[in-house]
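Chapter summary example: a protein plus magnesium ion.
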Amino acid sequence: MASLFDPVTTLPGIGPTRAQQLAKLNIRTLYDLIAYFPRDYEDRTRLRAIADLEVDQPACFEAIVISHPRTAHIRQGLDLTKVTLADQTARLSVTFFNQRYIADHLLYGQSYIFYGKLEGDARGVQMINPVFEPLESPGILTRRILPLYGLTAGITNKILVKAIGAALHACRNSLPEVLPPQVRQQFRLCDAAYAYETIHHPADFDALAVAQKRLIFEEFFIFSVGLAMMRARRTEIPHIPYAVCDISPFLAQLPFPLTGAQQRSIDEIAADLQKPKPMNRLVQGDVGSGKTMVAAAAAYLAAVNGKQTALMAPTEILAEQHHHHLQALFEPLGISTVLLTGSLGAAAKRAAKAAIADGTAQVIIGTHALLTGDVSFHSLDLVIADEQHRFGVGQRAALSAKAGSPHLLVMSATPIPRTLSLILYGDLDLSIIDELPPGRQTIDTFLVGEAMRPRLNAFIRKQVDHGNQVYIVCPAVEENEETALKSAEAWADTLQRTVFPDLTVGLLHGRMKGAEKEAVMGRFSRGEIHILVSTTVIEVGVDVPNATLMLVENAERFGLSQLHQLRGRVGRGKEKSFCVLISDTRSTETRQRLKALCQTNDGFQIAQQDLDLRGPGDFFGQRQHGLPTFKVASLTCDLDTLKLAQEAAANYLADQVPEPDSPLMARIRALFSNHATVFN
Ligand code: ADP
Ligand code: MG
């Protein structure tokens, strides 16, 4: 008997070549085949009369062959076979191109079911190359709902229909029921075999809906069980609770009172730390909501309890910035901070590592290299990852294991719609900072076209004359004739030479070396660069309060959340700040999308719109590695089901854990396969 995870080559008719073609569709195993769900269906169930056929509307009809098929050889490579069909309503002439063999299959006087499309012009109508089946045995090509699959070179729909049929047949008895019976009963879900058969070969659309409902639930259930297990692995580890301690010396150091939301998040963290298990918490707050202070409070609690904190920033620039702020905060409290980044000199690095190893360094700030490099900690017990929406579930699990299950605090500046954060951060408890520090001004945002360029340039100059600085973000690094997008390199050059020769225009992009980037960023923060032209590398976290204007070129190329993030780079100081989206897009939909940004400064609202408009794949763009790939379930449409499945998973896990070699576990491993280490 075939096993679900056997390679596709175990099926008859699938050799190495076809297997390679299928691999392009990510189909490698029998399970991949049967889980390669149709992207659409074509309804061929209804029979029409010939007289009712409409031009360009494919349909099924029953007809008798009323002429002997005749093939004419027109020229090399072109044979035409003609035949006349009829039913009680009309006659129809049909032409087959290069299908000589048709004459052997369409017999004079016999009835067949046809499926084809009428083509017509002034001279009349005819049908070309319809498919057909004998009246007695329809059901493959006609009189059914035909699944339509996503295709690739060499793989036709017919090949997939056949291969999937064969895989279903081979696995008929090994299609395991991964859903516990009580769950199936509670949510009225059909069984696995029926669901898989039906989604590929539905008898009708009601049956299809039943199958889809089950498969979506199944996928979310598997995901939820996997996620809960990962979480359990991290939290079942005992941890010595922190002593309840007084945080007021820390608060007294702050130049401002905390917002209510900051206070609440800190309370939640303090409560976590006093429990006998590791903290796993996400702090989510819009740009500028003051997450750093919340992280600092957590680090303070760790330090008071004699433990080290590692604060990881996504870039060295940001690490330096954090170090700068936190040092000022912690020094008066007698807590030592240390910065460890790749660009430190050898001696400084050695000194930092020594201080980390012997415990003199209490709050250690750096990038991911902190945990992946050869740094040995004295008493690391709290890991804080800042701006970490790029960090997947599995990576968190791996990281936590590596550092000996410390407390984990993730800070995300990307407001993620609640539902999506269930997926991305379902293994974490959530604190939301939904309040900005008082006195923040909204950033006035405008959408303008190329025609405004002269006025824009004047506006830039006005900001600079006023002593402020300007960001200009371009969608591309280099000039590219095909796309006609503004490139950072060329645009910086043009601005410097022709528009602002008397000002300093800087350039920053992701292809520059780390040290070069730091240098440019350093000059910008010191005010030595007036206008910084860059790609989205500045998106994350940099804090230059003197910058008051953000221009985004080809704004249509960016996602809303990304634009919101970019906009967050300005408005960090006391001065009125602006964001100008430049776009000449003619798409009304895109304009609407961009207008939404002009109308609100609320990151969560924007994120939700972004998700609704573009779906989760685009929402995260290229950067998202944490999402498993769902096959049937849609993160935009099926979120109610996700919630139910999560509850069901929690109930299920309350009574048992899946056996390591159970079908459920196999599917969990397959779903999280990009984090393979987690479940091995
Ligand atoms: P985030 O990381 O959430 O984007 P930051 O922690 O960088 O935000 O804080 C943004 C700015 O707001 C910083 O300059 C910080 O000093 C300031 N800030 C933080 N909390 C408060 C507060 N409660 N009151 C006033 N200013 C605050
Ligand atoms: Mg921050």
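Key point: The radius of gyration is 31 Å.
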